C-alpha cells in the first residue's frame, strides 16, 4: 500500500473518475442551469455570477468529456451555444439523486414528502433506486461489489481548487438549496470519502491510502462530513483500538447518488479496459445496473418522464 502511495497510484474507481469532472460547485451549477435551458456563455455568467475564466475552463472540460457539444447559434456568425450531449443528458440520474437528497435532508420535517412527479402514471412520487434485473430496491445492505475486468491502478486525478468552489458556494446556495448541499456535492473529495465508506474503507489511514488524499485535506473534509451528520465516529476494538468513520442514516441515503455516479462513470469515463467494479444484487443473485423506478406505479422512470417538485427545482 505504501509503495502504491509513493508511486502516486490509486485503485481504479468510476465514482472518483466522474467526480474529477463534476465534483465541483461551479460545474454543478452550470449543469443545473443547462438542464433548465441555459445554453449561452453570457447567460451562465448573468445567472450564476461565475467568473469568465472559470466558466471558460469548466465548459472546455465538459465539451472535451462529451457532456456538452458546441453548436452555432441560429443567428449565425462565430457565436456558439452549448447543448447537452448524450453524456450530459445521462447525468439526469446523479443530478436527480442530488436534488432528492437536498430536499430530503436540508429542510426539517419533510422526510416523507415526495419531490418528483411521474408523468406516465400521473402521481407525485419518490425515485426508488432499483435493480434492472429483478426491479427490487437496491440498498447498501443488499448489494456488493467485486473486481471487474478493468480493475487495477491508475494515477490519482487532481481535484478542482477548493478556493474556487467556495466562490461557487457564495453564488450558488440558492440553486442547490443550502450550504449543506453545496458542501456535500460541490467538491470532489467529500463524495469520494462517502463512496469509500460504502466500500468499507472507514479508517483515516486507509482513506489516505485508498484515495491518496492529502491527510490535511482528509482531516478537513471529515470534520465537515461529521458536522453535516453524514458520518459518525466509532471506536473499534480489533488487535488494537482505532477510530473509524461510519455512515449515518443521512449518509446512507447518499447511496443513490453514489450508485448513479458509478453507473455514469462506468459508461462515460471508461479507459477501454472495462469496468473497475462489478456490482451484484444479493436479493436476486444477478449483476445489476441501477435504475430509478416510480414509488407509486413501480414503472421504470426515464428522463423525459419526470418533473421536479421541490424547492430547488
Care to give the gist of this entry?
This protein is an alpha+beta fold. It is built from 14 helices and 14 strands.
Any overview of this molecule?
The protein is an alpha+beta fold. It has one domain: Winged helix-like DNA-binding domain superfamily/Winged helix DNA-binding domain (Arc Repressor Mutant, subunit A, Orthogonal Bundle), CATH 1.10.10. The protein is 44% helix and 19% strand. The chain contains 14 helices and 14 strands. The protein has helices at residues 2-7, 14-22, 25-35, 41-48, 52-64, 86-89, 92-105, 162-176, 179-185, 189-198, 204-211, 215-228, 249-252, 255-268; strands at 9-11, 68-72, 80-84, 116-118, 123-125, 127-131, 143-147, 153-155, 231-237, 241-247, 277-281, 286-287, 290-294, 306-308. The strands form six sheets. Strands 5-4-14 form a three-stranded antiparallel beta sheet, with no helix packed on it. Strands 7-11-12 form a three-stranded antiparallel beta sheet, with no helix packed on it. A hairpin with a 3-residue loop joins strand 9 (231-237) and strand 10 (241-247). The radius of gyration is 19 Å and the shape is globular.
